[in-house]
Amino acid sequence: MDQEKVQQILNWPPARNLKALQSFLGFANFYHCFIKNYSKNISSLTSSLKKYSCFPLNEEALSKFHKLKEAFTTAPILSHFNPSLPTIVETDASNYALGAVLSQVSDSVKHPIAFGRHKPIPEELNYEIHDKDLLGIVWALKRWRAFLLSLPSPFEDLTNHSSLQYFMSSKFLLSVKPVGLNSFLNFISLSFTALSA
Fold first, then answer.
1. Which residues, including other chains, have CB under 8 Å from residue 51's CB and lie 6 or more apart?
2. Which residue, of 7, 17, 128, 192, is most buried by count of CB atoms within 10 Å of its CB?
């Protein structure tokens, strides 16, 4: 982004009404794939879009607004995908969003390739947290399947729930009800690593 645009973003005033907030969120959504933890930063702002929301923004929404502005001006440089490099998919789920990062390791440094986010449908919001994490993994695998299917060796999925390591066991896969999920996963070669809390 050129310096003039960066300065315009830094000077963007906090939304004072619904129309101004919609304008900022429209801009933000266009660039969401470049911002890590975008879903976490946007949640309190999107909740301000409700019909009877108060303006000016509350303290939490205002804090997220400023974090997003800063993220736009300091976004990491995304690398090009290289199928010969070790690949990592990091997934996380919360009560309001699924997030994922596709990265590759080069010279012992992890470089982001793409960021992704997904807002679950209302039924999915009722899932247990390990099911939400599983949903996030499947969503990320489907989103980046063109990259992941081209890999000559297994990639790694980093998640914060160790119970998901059971997910790829043959016992689990035989019990999977959605046949589409089972057959999709048969083409993917991955290993899970649980992150410490």
1. none
2. 192
Tell which of 45, 73, 101 closes a domain: 73
Bridge partners (DSSP) of residue 53 are none
Mean pLDDT of 10-38: 83
Q: At what angle do helices 38-46 and 18-30 cross, to 10 degrees?
A: 160
Which of 58-62, 94-98, 172-176 is the least confident region? 172-176
Residue 79 lies in a domain: no
Mean pLDDT of the chain: 77
Q: Which residues are registered as beta bridge partners of 89?
A: 102, 157
Question: Is 78 part of a structural domain of the chain?
Answer: no
Query: For the domain that residue 21 is a member of, what is the CATH number?
Result: 3.30.70
For residue 164, what is the domain's CATH number?
A: 3.10.20.370
In this predicted structure, the answer to whether residue 174 has a pLDDT above a threshold of 80 is no
Q: What pTM does this model have?
A: 0.62
Q: Six-digit token pair at 99?
A: 């997030």
| Domain interval for residue 63 | 3-73
| Tokens 């090009």 sit on residue | 80
Q: Whose CA is closest to 50, among 97, 15, 18? A: 18
